[in-house]
């Protein structure tokens, strides 16, 4: 079980993005990924009022106040039930494998829990996300509308007092899936 107090790694200050961070957020995603696709995806999601939840776009600041890492949750649906999609997660290369990614993901998941969100979905490395409590989405009957290895589509239940919806994941249009 993940220790939710554990994201207070003193090296990283986690917080929601502010309007002043937008260019730097674009820069974190451009630096972390091979192409600008993820950076541009974030900007497209930011322009979608049905998807964008400003308090769930999270950054981790390095000690020099530059941005080291980024994690985004946006509104998606499982059939008609609201859920959140975690994407992208990015750490600038100079700060990778120093805990910044862990800190920013834990912080954004905690912020979602505090807001009363019940369910988060992620498509990603099956070695990375189980440490936050994610497991195969298929165990809940949740499925993407595209081909993907079963273990890469993962779900995290934040509120187990709410029945977990089964069905098809409907992503914001900006994901293009
Ligand atoms: C994946 C990523 C976000 C991880 O962030 P990070 O800040 O480097 O990772 P952290 O230091 O917080 O993570 C610690 C642990 O995560 C694991 N980890 C890190 N990168 C990983 C990867 N690419 N695959 C699997 N596990 C990984 C390691 O077990 C690591 O522990 P270790 O240092 O003891 O080996 C970062 O490497 C990144 O931006 N990569 C490029 C973009 C990307 O692939 N994003 C994910 C999309 S699903």
Automatic annotation (TrEMBL):
<protein>
    <submittedName>
        <fullName>N-acetyltransferase</fullName>
        <ecNumber>2.3.1.-</ecNumber>
    </submittedName>
</protein>
<keyword id="KW-0808">Transferase</keyword>
<keyword id="KW-0012">Acyltransferase</keyword>
<dbReference type="GO" id="GO:0016746">
    <property type="term" value="F:acyltransferase activity"/>
</dbReference>
<feature type="domain" description="N-acetyltransferase">
    <location>
        <begin position="12"/>
        <end position="159"/>
    </location>
</feature>
<dbReference type="Pfam" id="PF00583">
    <property type="entry name" value="Acetyltransf_1"/>
</dbReference>
<dbReference type="InterPro" id="IPR016181">
    <property type="entry name" value="Acyl_CoA_acyltransferase"/>
</dbReference>
<dbReference type="InterPro" id="IPR000182">
    <property type="entry name" value="GNAT_dom"/>
</dbReference>
């Amino acid at each position: 079980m993940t220790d939710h107090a554990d994201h207070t790694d003193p090296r990283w200050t986690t917080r929601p993005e502010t309007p002043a961070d937008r260019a730097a957020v674009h820069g974190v995603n451009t630096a972390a990924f091979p192409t600008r696709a993820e950076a541009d995806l974030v900007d497209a999601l930011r322009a979608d009022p049905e998807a964008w939840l400003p308090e769930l776009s999270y950054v981790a600041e390095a000690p020099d106040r530059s941005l080291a890492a980024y994690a985004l949750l946006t509104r998606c649906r499982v059939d008609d039930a609201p859920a959140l999609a975690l994407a992208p997660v990015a750490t600038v290369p100079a700060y990778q494998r120093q805990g910044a990614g862990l800190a920013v993901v834990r912080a954004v998941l905690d912020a979602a829990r505090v807001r009363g969100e019940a369910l988060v979905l992620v498509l990603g490395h099956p070695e990375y996300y189980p440490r936050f409590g994610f497991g195969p989405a298929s165990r809940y009957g949740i499925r993407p509308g595209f081909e993907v290895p079963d273990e890469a589509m993962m779900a995290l239940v934040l509120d187990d007092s709410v029945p977990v919806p089964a069905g098809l994941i409907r992503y914001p249009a900006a994901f293009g899936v």
